[in-house]
User: Fold this.
Amino acid sequence: MAHTILLVQPGPKPETRTFSDYESVNECMEGTRRALTPMHPITRIG
Assistant:
């Protein structure tokens, strides 16, 4: 079974580091798209 961990550091300081845990790459990509859509509404798909 595949397992995907997304590591994110949105700011320059190490304190901004976080992670998200997903069961698959596809689930990770969907979660990333949902997280970014409110920031960039023009990228909405469907």
Remarks:
- Residues 25-36 form the longest helix (12 residues).
- Helices lie at 25-36.
